[in-house]
Amino acid sequence: MSDSCCESACGSETAKADPRWRRILWIALIVNAAMFLIEMAAGAAADSRALQADALDFLGDTANYAVSLAVVGAVLAWRARAALVKSLFMLGFAGWVFGSAVFAFFAGSAPDPQTMGVIGALALAANVGVALLLYRYRTGDANMRSVWICSRNDAIGNVAVMLAALGVFGTGSAWPDLIVASIMAGLALTGGFQVFRQATGELKAAAA
């Protein structure tokens, strides 16, 4: 989800041309950063790897919005360096989520489904709110459209977390939580590698 946003959002001139678009990006950045902190804390308290994986996605989106705002109009090398740092964060957190999921599998503890459901619903509301702000730009340029699609797709991920909460509640097992967490972390890991390869390639091109 997050990696597809960065490819077209970083370095766009759109934010310069439309102050309202730039304000929306700031709102989206603040909302995503806040939800990253909330979900990470709730995931640790509820022992939910799916919440932690969803928090990872919020972190990736926060980085995307920050890059969009910070390097608008910058040269390719600086945009590539920013993307490289973002990819390393994505890879690090994805690896951490995978490791914690493996630990939870052997520990055999089940997460708290109530906390998962409440925080999952809060995350869904946050992403839907951001998507509504971006809705008028859904048919704009590639940058505008990609950012809106990211928020829309993230809302789908939040629904997956809520379904995992129902699965944990119904079975009393950690399996639904671990499955959703593994899928979401796998997507983040794949996206991190893609952004890393693209960023290193752009840095080589800029140096040449």
TrEMBL record:
It comes from the Bacteria. The chain crosses the membrane at residues 24-46, 58-76, 88-110, 116-135, 155-172, 178-196. It is a multi-pass membrane protein. The keyword Ion transport applies. Gene3D superfamilies: Cation efflux protein transmembrane domain. Residues 25-203 form the Cation efflux protein transmembrane domain. It comes from Sphingorhabdus buctiana. It holds the Pfam family Cation_efflux. The keyword Transmembrane applies. This is Cation transporter. Keywords: Ion transport, Membrane, Transmembrane, Transmembrane helix, Transport, Zinc, Zinc transport. InterPro entries: Cation_efflux_TM, Cation_efflux_TMD_sf, CDF/SLC30A. It is found in: Membrane.
